[in-house]
Structures are given as C-alpha cells and as structure tokens.
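WARN  no MSA supplied for this record, continuing single-sequence
INFO  ligand: MU-OXO-diiron
INFO  echoing inputs
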Amino acid sequence: MISEKINEILNEQINKEFYSGYLYLSMSAYMKELGLFGFSSWLRLQAKEEVEHGLKLFDYLIERNSFVTLKQIKTPEFEFQGIISVFNKIYEHEKCITESVMKVAKAAEEECDRTTLSFIDWFINEQIEEEQNIKNIIKRLELFGDDKVALYLMDKELSERV
Ligand code: FEO
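INFO  complex generated
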C-alpha cells in the first residue's frame, strides 16, 4: 500500500511533468514564430514525452490502488530571449525535475516502499538522458554562434525526431 506521503509526492510529480509539457509547448510556439520549425517540432515531441511521464505516474498510482489528485497547472512562460536562452531554461528546468525525482526516491527509501523505489528508477535514468541531450544541443548552439547555415542544418536535423 502506498503511504500518504508517497501518494502526495507522486501526485506533485504528475503536476510537474504536465507543467513541463506546457512549458515546452510554449517554447515550441516561440520557435515556430522564429521560423525554426525543426526546433519547434522537437519541443512539441518533448512536450508529448512529458505528458507521457505524467501518465506513467498516473497509471502507477492507480495500479497500486492509490488515488490521483490532479492539481492546477501553472501558466508557463511565453516570452523568451533567443534560442540559447530557451535551451538554458530547459536545462535548468530539467535539473529541478531531476532533483524532484530524487526526492521521490528519498521519500520511498524513508517509507521502505521498495515498489516505488524500483518504479522511480526509470525516471532517474530518463533524467540523466534528458539532461545530456539538452546539454549537447546547448554546446552545439554555442559553437555555431551566429552561423545561420549551421542553425538551418541543426533545425533540419531536429525536425527528423519522431
Ligand atoms: Fe519528465 Fe523532462 O522530465
């Protein structure tokens, strides 16, 4: 049985994942405004992934005979200052999500909840991968600087994500 503390922290995590989806959709719209359709499409898929993460937690609570409490999703930022700034924001956001997932693991340890501990492992691994992917995009954006051809090629490459 999932304790009240674990239930609460998992419901908070659902909200954070859905918020991440909202934030990335907002960024996707911004990229579209800039004419960077590949970046826009990549962020839209990232948003979809975040919603899937939220649903994974949602399904877990139900499977464990616990209950889901959907909370209000806050309004994401919608004014951004350029591509690198967007990806730096994503990186900072993902670091907060990693911290949050680690808190779930710590709470599960404290509650001796081995099932949740094992379940949350998937999220920890996912966070390592996400942080790395974002960092790699930032590195390349910094390297290319104002080179518009490089940016065009990167946009094209990101548009291939399925
Ligand atoms: Fe599902 Fe990017 O955290």
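DSSP finds five helices and no strands in the chain.
INFO  checksum written, moving to next record
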